[in-house]
Design a protein that fits this description.
Length: 211
Amino acid sequence: MADLESLYEAILKGKLDVAKAVTTEAIAENVDPQEIINGYMSRAMEDIGKRFEEGKAFVPELLMAARAMKGALDLLKPLMKGAASHRLGKVVIGTVKGDLHDIGKNLVASMLEGCGFEVINLGTDISSEKFITAIKENQAQILCLSALLTTTMNYMQEVIDALEKTGIRQEVKVMIGGAPVSESFARQIGADGYSDNANAAVTLAKSLLSA
């Protein structure tokens, strides 16, 4: 029998090889992928997120946990083609045009995925056109914009303006994050919310969807 509690521990401690080994064992035993994700993987990501907020864990631990979770999740994905209905919602995420930073953005993407969202990660240096295409193709409910430079943060406004012009602004909630942005900047550009860490981003995404 696969010891799924050790999967929880492996993700919490960022042990990728152990997480993959236990997941492989659980797959061989036909354990329901949603049970693995909701009962153990998401719980581990939520707990590491709480520890981070309480100052008991730091960014390296979050990154290692996210890496372990992603490794295990990748093994489950082929079994979940028909399980979209279990997802909390769809999120398109990317770093805006002109900005090539992606560590924080990838961490947010991993946390969202680990906590039950379907995530379409577009990468870095993404234009408003690419964001809009991805939202339409995936019927995403949330758009996450990231920027690490003061020179690129203003492009977030351009993306929101483009959503308005295309007529889909009302269909998608816009979240922003990154070192130079703030709550007041989010209000200024008409975003729906701002978060300064990956755990807060998950909480915000859940609250925006239930609003």
